[in-house]
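**User:** Once you have settled down, spend some time on the protein underneath, comparing sequence with structure tokens, and judge whether sequence predicts the tokens.
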Amino acid sequence: MRIISAVLAPPQRLARRVVAVWRRSLQVRVVTGTLVLSAVVTAFAGWILLRQVTEGLLDAKIAASLAEASAGFRTAQAAIDAAEPTGDPSELTTQLAEDIASRGASGGLYDVVLDVIPTEGGFRTVARSSRRTVLSSSVPDGLRQRVREDEIAYQYTLIHRGGGETSPGLAVGSRLREPRSGAALDLYYLFDLQQQQQVLTLLTRSLVAVGALIVALLGGVAWFVTRQVVTPVRQARQVAERLAAGLLDQRMQVRGEDDLARLATSFNQMAASLQRQIRQLEELSRVQRRFVSDVSHELRTPLTTVRMAADVLHESRSEFPPATARAAELLQTELDRFEALLSDLLEISRFDAHAASLELEDVDLRDVARRVVEAARPLAARKGSEIDLRLPAEPSVAQVDYRRIERVLRNLVVNAIEYGEGRDIIVRVAADESAAAVSVRDFGIGLKPGEAAMVFERFWRADPARARTTGGTGLGLAIAMEDVLLHGGWLQAWGEPQRGAHFRMTLPRKAKAPLDHSPIPLVPDESGTVDADHAGVQPHESAALPGSGQP
């Protein structure tokens, strides 16, 4: 098998390269198609022409040969009729053959074969040639049979000569009779067709050469014409690829005033418009990020002052009237929320400025899940939910930033408690050789079609009229997404109305290693557990990270 594989490997590689070139190059397909069609048309036209010329040459040769042979048959029959009755029949036939052959010697037109058939049966062949010795086997048996039926007949044949020489020819035969003895004489004219064959051979070679030249010229014309069209298209593709890579100043060369030139001009105008809009959006985004960052930092100082005053009021609330005490408590709660919002805004600003960094360490995700679940149990109890923690027996160690992964999982669990409507919540940890995953499953209101793709957007809410009861800021899942992306992982969501939602975080066990799968399927089964047989994802029910390619 190894020998066969080694022998077949080079042709297979060559075939793959040819297929790749064929699929990727429009010019190759057009030129190849032109060559093939041109070759077929040229071959068909050449075949028609060669057939017409061949039929014309042979028809003319047959007509001339039949005329020559008919005249010879009449002359030979007249000579037999005028012969002396006392002459020797043997000498008569020999002399007759020599006379006929000598008449063809002047132009080398034909050879003759004479079969003498006495009345007693059998026959004797007398062969005479005007140039070289001709063999009686040059006359086909089929022609002899037709001549014996008293008719003039002809047939193509091979003329055999002494020394093994052969040439194509035409045999024409007729039966003559000696009137006194009743003996039959079968006379055959053998006309050489070698000259016609040489003409046809020369014509065939000329047609092949001219046809090959025409096909080559048509291929060159097709290559030149397609190059004029394909080159601007290739240039447009290259410029588009560079634009997609962020080189917004790339433009196509404009030559002439034809359709392709107008296409290049329109393409450049489109690229310039996109560049202006992208630059405007980038500038607007930069201003927005700067504004958020500056506002967040500037609010830190007054917030600290307000926090100190609120703490004093909160500690002394027992000395205030009930209404004032309640106001102090509300102020403390809202300040906590405002402080959390500022912290989240500052974190988002660091992500936008690409200033976020990881402090990697080997972390067992089971420990992270235990800590987050234990911290969330009081909140879940207040909402009427139970958290079911499902951990593997083996450690699920991955190289991660503990603080960020704990924050991601805490956001997912709190989000499940918020929208779980008091039903149970399942937190699951799983790992294999290359990836580790943590999933959070709730059975609450779920997600409508299309919402799974928006759930990680900043400040997005499924129901804007629904009040937050867990103190969220609206940035938790957006920050969680950025944290997971920073690890080179996936954060994905699935959901259906009234079936709940399922969030899955997948991380490489080695930092920044590529991911191609997750130990936990994204789509759960009807019982709420995650079923490996239901790993397929409906497009409207889940959201994957851009470029992940993972359902």
